[in-house]
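Fresh eyes needed here. I'd like your take on this protein's tokenised backbone:
***
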Amino acid sequence: MLNRERGALPLLLLLAAGASLTAQEPAAGRAGRSQGRGEAAAVSGSKEDPAAVGRGAKLYQTNCAGCHGATARGGVGAPDLIRSSLVLDDEKGILIAPVLRNGRPDAGMPKPNLTEAEIGDVIAWLHVQTFAAGHRTTYAFQDVLTGDAKKGEAYFATTCGSCHSATGDLKGIGSRYDAFALQARWLQPRGGRGGGRGGRGAATASARGAVTVTVMLASGQKVSGTLDRIDDFSVSLHDASGDYHSFTREGDSPRVEVHDPLKPHTDLLAKYTDADIHNVTAYLVTLK
């Protein structure tokens, strides 16, 4: 069962749904809401029906975000969809629709159980995402500082204060990042985008938020390390020495425990309102 070798384990999971709007990635977790003029420009430029795009965003969050992440840029054992050739090469749903209609059970992707109308909405949303990715330099980001800093401080205290501190880990964060980058960073601490000004290195943030896994073999041996990939058929990791391990999975054997320190952030994405996000951002920029 144990296979020790260097190199990545091939992963066969394919498309489940859409990728988030690159230009407005920090707000991608709030399905179906307009996230600013940049997003509106992308919807308009792609020639897709805005109503269909909004419905498709909600359907993605409900059916696909659990595997592919709130921004659709890949999750634990699931690929980055915004770079999927199936999406990029699609015309009028010819390539995407069969996958959404039937799933790929043989590759670990269950049937989403979407109606034909819902499939069309997800496809419309997907087309907007690929358009936005290809045209992200052609429209300007608008000011994200539209919130109430006082309300943001109160929300932060009740929702975030048990893990983070304005005088501790977040001290001075408002000086290290511009408003847009800061909003991206706190919404998506693992995948947030935007240019910081002299902030901590990406490697440090990556290590702090690394997903780890423990594989418990039938013999009683436990193998732990940084998660590489996991799906219904296999799990792979790098241990503390850097050695690569991969295991074949059959149902619940071997037993696997995944530990994601950033899961609270992921869980909150579906709960934030637009006001919450802008208020918290307005507050965080004051932490000089």
Strands lie at 2-4, 73-75, 78-80, 212-216, 222-230, 234-238, 244-248, 255-259. The chain has a mean pLDDT of 74. The first strand starts at residue 2 and ends at 4. The longest helix spans residues 116-134.
